[in-house]
Amino acid sequence: EWDWQKEVEQLASADVIVSIQQDDAVILKQMTPHAEVINAPMSAVYQPHTVDEQIEGRCVFIASDIEPNVNGLQWLLEAVWPEVLRANPSTTLHVCGSVCSQFRQTYHNVRFLGRIDDLAPEYGAAEVCLLPLRTGSGLKIKLVEALSHGRACVSTAVGVQGMGQLTDKAVLVADKPEDFAQAMLTVLQHPEKRKTMEAYARTYVVGHLAPETVYQPLVDWIHQHIQQSNPL
């Protein structure tokens, strides 16, 4: 049976421990104070889009069919989406990925596109990317991808785990249905706010998520370890 103590023992035997988000790095360091812990999250390369690609009122959710995504989308469609449509009836939602296979019911102004080969047009058309996750752990790849396309995001606290520094900058965070709906409307109804969030997303990706930035500490450690193991 796997328990906390066994995990600590296994971690302590490693030369280096690599985390994928800062929150995990803090916990791992607490578990193994004498171990080397390096945070190396998912990297991203900024993908530019032209302004005229965006479609007014377009929201996008992209996900696989694992349970947290299905649960989050169900919550979005049943508890949040009606509130958004009441305030802004022309809002549309495109859902992409295998998560679509778990939904048979139709929803007003919602299209289930399933798995598609090229997501760039969907990101390009979006005014806001959604992360309505209520459970889960680790770094959310869908958040990194949305940021890499320079898109404003609305997320629950779970969806932004490990990247909380983006809150109120590139990501609006809300956990209650009415607050999540209002956050979506804030992005959709205030173009200048959205553009500011998009600009921050772009700046953050270039400055903090570029591969050479994200992986350099790990590369440096590997080089140092090789030199120590094979001195001239």
UniProtKB/TrEMBL annotation:
Pfam families, alphabetized: Glyco_trans_1_4
Gene3D superfamilies per record: Glycogen Phosphorylase B (3.40.50.2000)
PANTHER family membership: GLYCOSYLTRANSFERASE
Protein name, UniProt field: Glycosyltransferase
Organism annotation: candidate division KSB3 bacterium
